[in-house]
Amino acid sequence: MRDALVAAAFQLFLERGYEQTTVDDIVALAGVGRRSFFRYFPSKEDVVFPDHERCLADMTAFLAESGEAEEPVHRVCDAARLVLRMYAENPTFSVQRYRLTKKVPGLRAYELSVVWRYERALAEYLRTRFTGRDGTLQADVIAAAVVAAHNNALRSWLRSDGKGDSDAAVDHALGYVREAFGGAPPAHRGGEQPEDVVVVVSRRDAPLWRVVQEIESALGRN
Amino acid sequence: MRDALVAAAFQLFLERGYEQTTVDDIVALAGVGRRSFFRYFPSKEDVVFPDHERCLADMTAFLAESGEAEEPVHRVCDAARLVLRMYAENPTFSVQRYRLTKKVPGLRAYELSVVWRYERALAEYLRTRFTGRDGTLQADVIAAAVVAAHNNALRSWLRSDGKGDSDAAVDHALGYVREAFGGAPPAHRGGEQPEDVVVVVSRRDAPLWRVVQEIESALGRN
């Protein structure tokens, strides 16, 4: 019945426009009562984004399962891929919704609030992993960067009518964030960065012999 | 009259709550008619954020003035500081509004839409500067990271009741983004990072004596 309500709602939104369609119209077309509608969807906006609550719950559960050994930036990138997967499950529906959302300011505002909740879920997880003095700053910035990269790739895919390889596009976009914030695994870095540069970070007051030892070790010369 | 309307609105929001205050209540307290209210503010939400439109216009103008010689990440960081300045102009009002916004879901949604518009203004500028294959990706990610860093510092300052050095907090937060995306000038890096850490980047095939020379120079020991 939930799917039938979503299908009826979208048929009417596309035919008449979002604002011109009432919940009564939707339930009449789906052949059910108003109470059934509100059992599934708190409001008309929610029928446009029927799977975000489930996806948010999946994301929160996925992040809660993370162990200490997981590289945190890698983990939030994987969490963001859950959102892509939801869109990619049903390209036709996702493209229709994208077009509708662009036209209706109320849906745009609703979508911003959903995006904000995804971003907070990622940031909350990162805050548990980055516990230094700048932990909340790092968490907030990286969460925002991951969401922006994901959405950049997702929107390109939606604008291409759901054609093309959405996974590859999102991987590429998230790779940019992981390079910037050091969450790229060694194999990835090896492919991306030139092998001929070595970075050494040292305390200013470290004795010089200690620094040289570190460099020799980084260069693989000892 | 505009300031009187804002003052009356906030007095009532704090006394009765936002939802319980009508535009009629506000104009009655300010001693003006309804039409005066709507001449300044399209809606009750707008009276809560009276200066965002001006600030958005200032930001857009500031970015439009940029020359090719400006480092783009540096430029968007300076643009973000315009928002901080607006908040810092009137700490008491900003702190009151922060508390109010946290409590009222409708204002939270309105604020998200304002933040989104700032982010888009930064991203649009960056898109004109990053014209490579990944230009829109870089622009979107850096704009989101700048906004997240700015807001992290701004919120800390608001939570501390507008005490403390908001400029220093935002500089520090934006410094993190500039380091990640390569927009930090050498002088800035020196001021931001703890003085007791030295970073040396060297070609892997450089002779060791050359690397040691670089370190000595970085440590100021030669």
Q: Characterize the quaternary organization of these chains.
A: homodimer
**Mean model confidence by pLDDT of chain A:** 87
Q: State the CATH topology of the largest domain in chain A.
A: Tetracycline Repressor, domain 2
**Which parts of chain A are unreliable, with pLDDT below 50 for 5 consecutive residues or more?**
185-195
Major β-sheet of chain A, in short?
none
* Beta content of chain A: under 5%
Task: Give, in order, the helices and strands of chain A.
Answer: HHHHHHHHHHHEH
**What characteristic shape of chain A results from the CA principal axes?**
elongated
Structural class from helices and strands of chain A? mainly alpha
The CATH homology group name of the largest domain in chain A: Tetracycline Repressor, domain 2
Number of helical segments with 4 or more residues of chain A: 12
In total, the number of domains of chain A comes to 3
Distance between the termini of chain A: 69 Å
The largest contact between protein chains, plus residue counts on each side, is: A-B, 44 and 45 residues
* Total count of strands of chain A: 1
User: In CATH terms, what is the architecture of the largest domain in chain A?
Assistant: Orthogonal Bundle
**CATH C-level name of the largest domain in chain A:** Mainly Alpha
Radius of gyration of chain A, CA atoms, in whole angstroms: 23 Å
Helix content of chain A: over 70%
